[in-house]
Amino acid sequence: MKNEVHVFAPATVANVACGFDTLGFAIHRPGDDVIVRFSNSPGLTIKTITGDGGKLPLEAEKNTAGVAAKALMEDLGVVRGIEMEIHKGIPIGSGMGSSACSAVAGAFAVNELMGKPLKKKELLPYALKGEAIASGGAIHADNVGPCLLGGMILIRSNKDLDTIDIPVPSSLYAAVVLPELQILTVDARNILPKEISMKDGITQWGNLGGMIAGLMKSDYQLVSRSLQDVIAEPKRAELIPGFYQVKQEALNAGALGCSISGAGPAIFALCEGDECAFKVGIRMQQAFLENGIQAERFISPINTLGVQRIK
Ligand code: HSE
Predict the structure, then answer these.
(1) Does ligand 1 lie within 6 Å of residue 15's CB atom?
(2) How far apart are CA 29 and CA 18, in angstroms?
């Protein structure tokens, strides 16, 4: 058994427009690094957190990575002490799966340190437990699933954790643009309607079915027609100044579709090919600037690996 393990977990885009709480994909960058090693203090100790601007708690019981790692340690009956370092690469409240990412990295790192007693997929409930404390207790695996497993993941049931890896065309790229704004998932969930109309339901599940079929058939036009959200986007757009301008610029530059990444404020666009994604990303970033908001840009194919051990 190695004495130290270093893992990298990637950012994710949840919802993918039409799949609220049921669809998400991983990108290559940014991501969180977590390092764990055996220690002489019993239980789990979080020694350091960097990149969080001092916002995240060191108490393992209040920290997403800590909760996930501790739950796994308890179930595995780990008697040795473990210490953890968390290096955040994904800003908190970005809509890029920051809390899910740390939770996945925490559980995955402990499992690696213990000699991999569980398979990747079996770590899902532990990572979800960690993420639940950041999302006000709501259980949705649309960030945790793709962060852990990689690829485009459909969560058929969040209750049963029935996850399906949807094959995607290799030339599918995402442009993700993160404005300098912060939205907490809890707040972005609270503004959503508790009920939806039959009309919106029919539109949404038609699009989700179309999206899955389009990805599996490499039918970019079908993907494009399906990249629509009539449920969360209209409400959440109010939290992101310039949203509709950014979206229009992405579409004008050739994106297949564009919507809010997870709970926002990051906005993603899907594109055919990297050239298109670079162009789209730049135009989206410029549109934010025109609204007086600085934004960061990430261009990536779908990351099919998910969390990885680095050392
Ligand atoms: N599906 C979730 C939401 C992702 O949109 O609220 C954010 O955690």
Answers:
(1) yes
(2) 23
Indicate the helix (H) or strand (E) that contains 240: none
Q: Identify the DSSP state of 232.
A: S
Active-site residue 122, yes or no? no
Best residue among 98, 133, 189 to mutate for probing ligand 1's pocket (most ligand atoms within 8 Å of CB) is 189
Report whether residue 143 contacts ligand 1, using a CB cutoff of 6 Å: yes
Structure tokens at 151: 């690829």
**Catalytic residue flag (residue 131):** yes
Nearest CA to ligand 1 atom 1: 21
Please choose, from the candidates 267, 230, 255, the residue with its C-alpha nearest in 3D space to the C-alpha of residue 94.
267
> Which pTM does this prediction carry?
0.97
pLDDT digits (tens, 9 = 90+) for 252-295: 999 999 999 999 999 999 999 999 999 999 999 999 999 999 99
Cβ–ligand 1 distance for 142 under 6 Å, the answer yes
| 3 state SS of 62 | helix
Chain position carrying tokens 């100790």? 45
113 CA from centroid of ligand 1 (Å):
30
Residue 200 belongs to what H/E stretch? Answer: helix 198-216
Measured from the CB, is residue 14 less than 6 Å from ligand 1? Answer: yes
- Rounded Cα distance, 233 and 96, in Å: 16
Domains and CATH numbers, the chain: 4-166 (3.30.230.10), 172-301 (3.30.70.890)
Model confidence pLDDT, tens digit, residues 207-243:
999 999 999 999 999 999 999 999 999 999 999 999 9
The catalytic residue among 85, 131, 233, 272 is 131
